[in-house]
Design brief:
alpha/beta, 10 strands, globular, Amidase_dom, catalytic activity
Amino acid sequence: MRHLSSHPDAYGVFASQCAAGSQGSAKGCATVAIKDCLDIEGLVTRCGSRALADAAPAKAHSDVVANLIAAGCRILGKTKMHELAYGMTGINAFEGTPLNPHFPDRIPGGSSSGSAAAVAASLVDFAIGTDTGGSIRQPAICCGVIGFKPTFGRVSRKGALPVQSSLDCIGPFARTVGMIEQAMGAIDPTFQAEIFEGPLRLARLGMDVEIEPRMAEAMLAVRTDGDGAIKDIELPLLDAAFKAGMTIIARETLLANIALLERPELLGEDVRKRLEGARNATDADMAEAENVRVRFTADIDALLERFDVLMTPALPLPPPRLSEASDPAKVLTLTRYLRPFNLSGHPALVLPARTVDGLPSGIQLVAAKGADARLIAIARRLVEDNPIFQTKE
């Protein structure tokens, strides 16, 4: 059993599960941590919940784990997460909350908190998380690393919980764009890296009253080289898409976990309340949410026919302090710019930066469906051309 540090649980990795499934044999192969909603043969997939702690061990690897092993990666452990992947803070009373390595008084973010923290602490080369409403991208920014949500359906979800989702994507965290690219090649055998050489046509989301000005600093500082162009645009359906994503995740998470409400004492209070509240999502609400999905997706598809990439802020406000994490006003809008692209299914990547007063911030880049490799190549270009980003190859 390999311990990742002298305090192996501090950054969200289960020491008791280290080295599980680590069959990669290549010397110097990439080391990886896996979010605990993905099956590793012989281990219980707990999803951060006491309610699943006594479940039967997984009988087989999830597809993503099998692909990592086939690629020669070494899996060092499973990471803590927000219970049932249904929260944005990463706070977990059952397993403990992962420490945010660079911002220890701030939340690590959710729901892939342990994966983001393990990468930020340099315990692994990259980590795998899942993203249903910003659950890779938001903790990536909270912890100061890169997070990537692939095109919906690109990476197999076989062996992932929840089993059914119209929003959820599996993707990587890393400290460099190059490692994100390597991670994608490992989890998706069809992935082929690209180089972006042409002039960059970049659509930049216009400023609005919902964002703290310092959280837009990184986006406004971005420059393109050569003949590149940046044009400000508006997304009239952004807030409707955010709300629609909230409605759909509520209904789908309730359906996936409704049996757990038979023993509510085994659930964390925050997750139990969210599941109970999800009962209020009506069929009419779902129909309207699906209508918004169609319209918003069409808008983004059309926009990305004219531009190579869409750029938004990553977060509308700084990640709250741990002491503020129970305040809805500090938490509920954190995924305002992230969640809509789960609804639409477009690939999205976040690059970390810091505000002038040193708080975690960054940008989000969104590309056309299927243009995952091109999006990563564009991210590399922007990192090379813009010193504001806290990542270097």
